[in-house]
Design a protein that fits this description.
Elements lengths: L10 E5 L4 H12 L3 E6 L2 H13 L4 E5 L5 H15 L4 E3 L17 H12 L7 H23 L7 E3 L32 H10 L9 H14 L3 E3 L6 H12 L5 H13 L5
Parallel strand pairs: 1-2, 1-4, 2-3, 5-6
Helix pairs in contact: 1-7, 4-5, 8-9
Length: 272
């Protein structure tokens, strides 16, 4: 079984690397002596992230990349290989979320298309976001199996950051491409992180953000230990996984999900 304990001199490619988890992982990779390629659709934040890495002495390259465009991803691969000669870690981190409103049958078709193109085909609190991330999980499980069957020595992992994260994904709508422009009028204001936190606090739920550096540490530890499931310590949300498994084995109904969504609706000020 192939493992990678020594990260010194290795090369990591991180999509969605201009901010949030991606930027934190890039910095952590650099601290381990890795060379880093950051990819993002936003040029200015990407430039800023690369400057910050270089200021810390981390050898890095920024490539403006649209993960919904396969030719753009191919260009990213070429630039990474041309610059560093090899790639040892690829983080399919790019994602979008928090753009839909209402029940899933009320979601704009453009929301589904954008979410699938970025979160699934790009590698990477509504039905769109969890559906696409579930697809990424199934995709990565299949990738792991095929890699094992063919004996390539390449490893696949899934990261579950856990906790409440202060990243730009809460406000993805700010950078929504014109080709995914909504086709129906919104009935509620666009989501912002401040509004989400305010709703929880108003309901008596205190929010503590998980440091992004902690998430990056999970990734480093997971790579070294060759853990498929990169997860934090046990959390209350683990109960949902247990309830889901029990529901499947009992041939029951997915009441566990109804409970979760009902609590979320109550937090947001009542059911629709």
């Amino acid at each position: 079984m192939a493992t990678m304990n020594d990260l010194q001199g290795k090369v990591a490619v991180v999509t969605g690397g201009a901010g949030g988890i991606g930027r934190a992982m890039a910095r952590r990779f650099g601290q381990e002596g890795m060379k880093v390629v950051l990819a993002d659709v936003l040029a200015e934040p990407l430039d800023e992230a690369i400057r910050a890495l270089k200021d810390e002495g981390i050898e890095s390259l920024g490539v403006v990349t649209d993960v919904t465009d396969y030719s753009s991803v191919e260009s990213l691969a070429k630039e990474a290989l041309d610059r560093f000669g090899a790639v040892h870690v690829v983080c399919n981190n790019a994602g979008t979320g928090a753009v839909s409103e209402g029940y899933m049958w009320e979601h704009d078709l453009a929301d589904w298309r954008w979410g699938i193109d970025v979160n699934v085909l790009g590698g990477a609190a509504t039905a769109v976001y969890p559906m696409t991330k579930a697809a990424v999980l199934c995709l990565t499980e299949s990738l792991y199996t095929h890699l094992e069957m063919t004996g390539t020595g390449v490893r696949a992992h899934v990261l579950f950051p856990g906790g409440f994260l202060n990243t730009g994904i809460w406000e993805s709508w700010r950078h929504r491409p014109t080709q995914y422009a909504a086709t129906q009028e919104r009935h509620t204001p666009d989501t912002t992180l401040d509004k989400v936190v305010d709703r929880f606090e108003s309901a008596g739920v205190h929010i503590e953000f998980t440091p992004l550096e902690t998430v990056a540490d999970q990734v480093i530890e997971g790579i070294r230990a060759d853990n498929f499931w990169m997860m934090g310590p046990p959390a209350p949300s683990d109960q949902v996984v247990s309830k889901k498994a029990a529901s499947i084995l009992a041939r029951g109904e997915p009441d566990y999900l109804v409970d979760v969504l009902s609590k979320a609706a109550d937090t947001e000020g009542g059911k629709r």
